[in-house]
Amino acid sequence: MTALKAQEGTNAIPGNLHVAEDCRAVSEVLARVGDKWTVLVVSTLGDGPKRFNELRRALGSISQRMLTLTLRGLERDGLVSRTVFPTIPPRVDYELTDLGRSLLEPVKELGLWARRNRPEIQAARQRFDTGTAHLNA
After folding, report:
1. pLDDT, tens only, 72-102
2. What's the structural domain count of the chain?
3. What is the CATH number of the domain that holds 72?
4. CA distances (Å), 99 to each of 38, 56, 126, 137, in order?
5. Containing domain of residue 47, as a range?
6. Does residue 57 lie in a domain region?
7. Residue 77 · residue 28 · CB < 8 Å
């Protein structure tokens, strides 16, 4: 295993820990699952299949367009399935796929972590903002 030459003040890391394609892949996935509406839609669908308007009511402030875009993205990524029932009017249900269900636990854990650590993060932000206020003057 070869190490990258360390810049002054940094540690050398093995060359295989930073593969550009892996970084892009991780970034793409994190962009999807880190999105505010994705987290809320996945959490809501964790209770079982929902129709579009059920989801919209459960999410409160989401616009119809944003919910549509979020569901399309989740369907494209294989996290949500869309089932159309041949009724009049047509009924469409959205449900987590197996892959989507596998995301539930990490999403819940991340939410728990955020709630548990929010006060500490807010305090750190306030210390930072107070300490750098003179730089903005």
Report:
1. 999 999 999 999 999 998 899 999 999 999 9
2. 1
3. 1.10.10.10
4. 14, 22, 39, 50
5. 17-136
6. yes
7. no
